[in-house]
Amino acid sequence: MKPQEILAKLPYSKPFLFVDELLQIDENGSTGTYTYDKDLDFYKGHFKDAPVTPGVILTETMAQIGLVCLGIYLSESANTEMKAHVMLTSTAMDFMKPVFPGEKVTVTAEKVYFRFKKLNCNVIMKNEAGETVCKGNISGMVTAKMHD
Amino acid sequence: MNREELIAAIKEIASPYTGDKTALDQINEETNFITDLKINSANLVDIILDLEEKFGIEIDNDSMSKMLNVKSTIEIIEAKLAENDRK
Description:
The structure holds two protein chains of two kinds.
Chain A: H1 3-9, E1 21-26, E2 29-35, H2 55-78, E3 85-95, E4 104-115, E5 118-126, E6 132-143
Antiparallel strand pairs in A: 1-2, 2-4, 3-6, 4-5, 5-6
Chain B: H1 3-14, H2 21-25, H3 41-55, H4 61-66, H5 70-86
């Protein structure tokens, strides 16, 4: 499956789609980018007069580029009839640097294992200077249904 | 390995994944991972991966789907260990 086909299958839309480009994907991992539009609504409140991208949004971005794109790729390549949904089940993240409005980030995910429908990945996010802004481990269950 | 030893091994592996220490202390063959130990399906996968490593066995999808309580888990571990012995 090509990156463009996977992007078309993502179940998100604005303001909760956090993938712009999927640069690379194969059975071992994925790489993608996202630029945080300075007009995103949460910047008004996080924080008052000092906008910084919330950690949960960074985590979501890593989950969409890493876990969800890779989960769809791994499931639907094996079974083209399947419409795969990925449910987030756990995260462990370390945050190193703030990400400000307008910054572009690159997320790289490496598969640790995909067994019994559970996908576990190590993920890392870098800013345009190539500095690591956050990294961690994330997992989810790939199901055929949106709600279980 | 007898049944008590297998239950003790399962108890040790399940321990980090359950918040219900009372249910864990009372673990027996009828204990269900999801309803009694309050373990979610994602952590159940990790328990099964840990059991594979501990016992040097490989669990297939069909077996995995049956491993919801301690009794069926023991039966599957015993069957896989016996398969290994025949090899």
